[in-house]
Design a protein that fits this description.
This is Alkylated DNA repair protein AlkB homologue 8 N-terminal domain-containing protein. With about 280 residues, this protein is mostly helical. Helix content is about 45%, strand content about 10%.
Length: about 280
């Protein structure tokens, strides 16, 4: 459909090329071109679009869920107007409520059908739970890494040299163990961190050469991501990195909870400050 037109059908154009399925540009093109006008109505909500997956994130304050529920209704209305069908049976809702006296939340409905409420969901490969703990995610990633150790052992038995084994490890095992690591590693439990590091240590024994620890990779990626945000004034989180009057260190982000203290932005500020050269 063409936004602003009276008809739901646009003119037909024949293309001689097509974007193959799963190419890198396709999700961005589809979300920008086909769903460009599907945006959040309220500032307390955010709509995340990736290819054919859409996620609505709502911030509920003072027990007022009006804007959140209206946002979902507005999304359903937009889909109907654009000849898209929402599969309510595949739609899930996760409620994160950390108040001491939490209340029961009314079921969310779409087209008179109740949306299933779950304790965890998978978003772009990351398992997110209602209490924001990461054991489920770590267990899933570590299981994949352990399974791929089998192929590393087979390559070792084939007498491949350590450099090639290391390349295989980094491409097929490390990439899995550290997927989106800046999001979840900071709030991992000590047991979860040991679980991941144990897999890395096993791989190092198979290869016969040292490998970067999970912690070192996390710190390096935090530093890299934070540095790119600092250099990009257009980034939504650019203002979170503010230099102190001395111009030598970044201002720490105040956190009332350990969960927030160990999340990406406070961690990134600490990492940047620890990497700055000491004053003369």
């Amino acid at each position: 459909s063409v936004p602003g037109s009276d008809s739901n059908t646009s003119s037909t154009t024949t293309l001689s090329t097509v974007a193959p399925q799963a190419v890198l540009r396709q999700p961005r093109c589809s979300s920008r071109c086909w769903t460009h006008d599907c945006t959040a109505k309220f500032s307390s909500n955010h709509i995340i679009k990736f290819a054919d997956d859409t996620t609505v994130v709502g911030l509920i304050s003072n027990n007022d869920e009006t804007h959140y529920r209206e946002e979902v209704a507005q999304l359903a209305k937009w889909c109907g107007a654009n000849n898209l069908s929402l599969n309510v049976s595949k739609t899930k809702e996760v409620v994160m409520d950390f108040r001491r006296n939490s209340v029961d939340h009314r079921p969310l409905t779409i087209d008179s059908s109740a949306v299933e409420r779950v304790s965890s969901t998978k978003f772009l490969g990351v398992h997110i739970t209602e209490n924001l703990t990461w054991t489920t995610n770590v267990t899933s990633l570590n299981k994949k890494g352990q399974q791929r150790l089998h192929f590393l052992r087979r390559l070792k038995r084939a007498s491949l040299p350590p450099p090639i084994l290391t390349t295989f490890y980094r491409g097929t095992i490390e990439s899995v163990l550290t997927s989106c690591i800046t999001v979840w590693y900071g709030n991992c439990s000590a047991a979860d961190r040991k679980t991941l590091q144990r897999t890395v240590n096993t791989a190092a024994k198979i290869i016969g050469a040292p490998l970067p620890s999970i912690l070192d990779i996390f710190l390096a990626r935090c530093s890299s991501k934070a540095s790119s945000i600092v250099k990009d004034p257009s980034h939504p989180s650019h203002n979170l990195f503010q230099l102190l009057p001395s111009g030598r260190r970044y201002r720490s982000i105040k956190a009332r909870s350990v969960r927030f203290l160990n999340s990406f932005f406070p961690q990134a500020v600490r990492v940047l400050n620890s990497n700055l050269p000491a004053p003369l």
